[in-house]
Write a structure and sequence with these properties.
291 residues, alpha/beta, Metallo-beta-lactamase, Chain A, six-stranded mixed sheet, 7 helices, globular
């Protein structure tokens, strides 16, 4: 590794999502992590405002987009991966567990004719411990199943981009009631994060500020280990599973889960337009509980 990465966060207030522009200052090669495609469910209108803001920063710094990295197939926002690839190139990557996610949801949305379940929509499927290059920087993959089957973190120097595995310490941890989710596996994944050096910077995928608060994007292994309200030093696996499972029973489905999954399991590609030139998303009735 030749240098520390340059990290620029972008917050989408509508979904509480953080997107990160991460680059090697020496080679000016860049990755975009967890990009957002803006979507208004009431009108069915998409927008590239959030993705264009990241692209503007990329171009202003004279950087080349090498990777578009997903920490998992998100259920709370649509991915702009396909749009970014069309605009700036780069390869789209996700954890190899995406196959299990596709196998769970392709039947729900009746997408077998248009969405394969082998992960082939993505340019690269990443395994635990694998390393990819970002210019002169090494990006190490850490599998973190539990929230979803495909959840992974990207470690670059002393920074880790951890998806939904942990939130800020006062907000706890990710839900585990989606297909492929498992509270015990999430506990084990969190212990993998806790095994990193205490000073490791943890970059959140979400924060949901209220009132006059501002969105927070960075924590640390040490802070989480000491302060996380759901799991910290001394929390047993059994206690965490009981807490997490009970909390999940109280949670509503994410507002955008139905449109988001249809797009995100297909690497951010919107549905092919019909003969009338209009693309359609599907609304399965009474089906998500069976996924």
């Amino acid at each position: 590794m030749t240098a520390a990465p340059t990290i620029t966060p972008f917050h989408d207030a509508a979904t509480g999502t953080f997107t990160y522009l991460v680059s090697d200052p020496a080679s000016r090669r860049a990755a975009i992590i967890d990009p957002v495609l803006d979507f208004d469910a009431r009108s069915g209108r998409t927008s590239t405002r959030s993705a264009d803001a990241v692209l503007a920063a990329l171009h202003e710094r004279g950087e080349t987009l090498e990777w578009i990295l997903e920490t998992h197939a998100h259920a709370d926002h649509l991915s702009a991966a396909a749009y970014l690839k069309a605009q700036a190139g780069g390869r789209v990557a996700i954890g190899e567990g995406i196959r299990a996610v596709q196998q769970a949801f392709v039947p729900v949305f009746d997408l077998a004719a248009s969405c394969a379940t082998d992960g082939s929509q993505f340019d690269r499927l990443l395994a635990d411990g694998e390393t990819i290059a970002l210019g002169g920087l090494d990006v190490r993959v850490l599998a973190l199943p539990g929230h979803t089957s495909d959840s992974i973190a990207y470690l670059v120097g002393d920074a880790a981009f951890i998806g939904d595995t942990l939130f800020m310490p006062d907000a706890g941890t990710a839900r585990t009631d989606f297909p492929g989710g498992d509270a015990g596996r999430l506990y084990d994944s969190i212990q993998k994060l806790f095994a990193l050096p205490e000073a490791t910077r943890l970059y959140m995928c979400h924060d949901y500020p209220t009132g006059a608060q501002t969105a927070r994007h960075e924590s640390s292994v040490g802070a989480q280990y000491r302060e996380n309200i759901h799991v910290r030093h001394g929390t047993s696996r059994e206690a965490y599973v009981e807490l997490r499972t009970a909390r999940d029973r109280t949670l509503a489905m994410p507002a955008l889960i139905i449109p988001a999954l249809q797009v995100n399991i297909c690497a951010g590609a919107l549905p092919t337009p019909g003969a009338n030139g209009i693309a359609y998303l599907r609304m399965p009735l009474n089906a998500l509980d069976r996924a």
